[in-house]
Amino acid sequence: MDWIIGAVCASMVAGAAYAKKSLTLSGCLAAIMMGTIYYGAGNLFWFGTLLLFFMTSTLLSRFRKDRKQELEKSYAKSGNRDAGQVMANGGMGMFLCLGYWIFPHPAWVYAFIGVMATVTSDTWATELGSLSRKPPRSVLTWKVLTPGASGGVSLLGTVAAALGGALIGVGAFLFSWIAGIEGLGLFSWTFVGFVGGLAGAFADSYLGATVQKMYRCTVCGREVEVHEHCGHPTVRARGWAWMSNDLVNVLSSVIGGCVAIGLGNILAL
């Protein structure tokens, strides 16, 4: 029955997102599969946390969208997410959910919150940080960067990342209480989400500034994540050939998850 409930709920949410053009068809199908597993193999704790990330991120992607349209042309990820982007954000959490289903252990739960806090923090930082009136600075050199440049951080984006991670922690406490999962208290869960999310978000910025494959627009000269900009093909500028934006998201999620495992084990003592 849980699998059926998961499939129905996931189909409703993903279908609505597809209708609103927040997901492509492939993204919609991936989200349905993912949501079904989150609820079927897990429970409201897992599914609710995923939904909290997805709904808040979708709303923020539409917040002042007119001001972000130009910057979105530089991003590999946008408000209309495909299957690859959906899996990059929620795929690791899905495998953690399956791991907990097969072999229940608190480490799976802590890692999951760290992963979801990371993707939420990163998304919030991108969506709100792009609205900052001050240009971002390099996470490596602190030099001023062009808005939208990979590896850039801003005060507004950092605050947004912190709030996003903390929200996932608060959600973890509420959903674990409703689902009857024994775990940490409100402060501890919030702290795990806050620190895990920030660690993952800054890891994403660091990887973006160092090894992520980036391109340069031959028209405006801007460094971008996409193969085409200003109506013309871009050329490779730097980074490892295989280090895509989706892979950077996965690796930063691993870091956020590992930090959360460490914190969770300490706070559970």
Explain this structure to me?
Helix content is 67%, strand content 6%. The protein is mainly alpha-helical. It has a 3-stranded antiparallel beta sheet with strand order 4-3-7, with no helix packed on it. A two-stranded antiparallel sheet has the order 1-2. Helix 5 packs antiparallel against helix 6 (106-129) and helix 6 (106-129) runs antiparallel to helix 7. The model has no long low-confidence stretch (mean pLDDT 88).
Helix content: 55-70%
Strand content: 5-15%
Topology as H/E string?
HHHHHHEEHHEEEEEH
Largest pleated sheet: 3 strands, antiparallel
Total number of helices = 9
Shape: globular
User: Low-confidence stretches at least 5 residues in length (pLDDT < 50)?
Assistant: none
Q: Distance between termini?
A: 36 Å
How is the largest sheet built, in terms of strand order? 4-3-7
What is the C-alpha radius of gyration, as a whole number of Å?
18 Å
Number of strands: 7
Kindly state the mean pLDDT as a whole number? 88
- Which structural class do the helices and strands define? mainly alpha
Write the layout of secondary structure elements.
Layout: H1 2-19, H2 25-42, H3 44-62, H4 65-72, H5 83-102, H6 106-129, E1 137-138, E2 152-153, H7 155-179, H8 186-210, E3 214-216, E4 223-224, E5 228-229, E6 232-233, E7 235-238, H9 245-267
Antiparallel strand pairs: 1-2, 3-4, 3-7, 5-6
